[in-house]
Amino acid sequence: MTRGSAFVTIAFVAGLALGLFAQSPGPGRHLRRVARAGDLAAIEKLHRADIEATLPQDPGALTDLFSGDAVNLALPTPAVGHKAIREAYEKFQSEHPDFKVLKYTPNISDVQIVDDWAIEVGTFAGMYKMSAKDNPISVEDPGMRVLKRQSDGSWKFALVGLK
Q1: What are the sequence ranges of the domains in the chain?
Q2: In degrees to the nearest 10, what's the CA dihedral of 4, 47, 137, 92?
Q3: Of 27, 76, 79, 93, which is most buried, counting CB atoms within 10 Å of its CB?
Q4: What letter would DSSP give residue 130?
Q5: For the CA atoms of the chain, what is the radius of gyration?
Q6: For residue 67, what are the CA distances in angstroms to 61, 130, 149?
Q7: Overall fold of domain 3-162
Q8: How many CA atoms lie within 13 A of 46 on its CB side?
């Protein structure tokens, strides 16, 4: 088992356990449903911002998707924190100035929310070109992301791990 698949498996099991806990009957169950609907709307807003930042590959907009202490394992070299994440995006951009994302579609199949944390899993499809003269490359990889609710009620990525 590769490190990536082991990580996704562990995250899936943790998400399943958190989901079962969050859906257990109790006095606040109706309130959890209402909160969940609002949370899902805020998470969908993050998904739209993710697409809007990924297509033009704007390092600032991409970095803003992450909480301040986030970990991005999807980068060539894993990065921790805003500064390192932004530097990684800027480095990639300087090394590959003609890189262009043609399509990007995150297909989230499950979201589990507990308190100020959410785990989502899905596939991430896209098409890109490393340079103007290269043929487009299509990808569709499984992945998971851990989201963290911010003090203003919005959600940001706390951990991104793609295959």
Answers
A1: 3-162
A2: -80
A3: 79
A4: S
A5: 17
A6: 12, 28, 9
A7: Nuclear Transport Factor 2; Chain: A, (3.10.450)
A8: 26
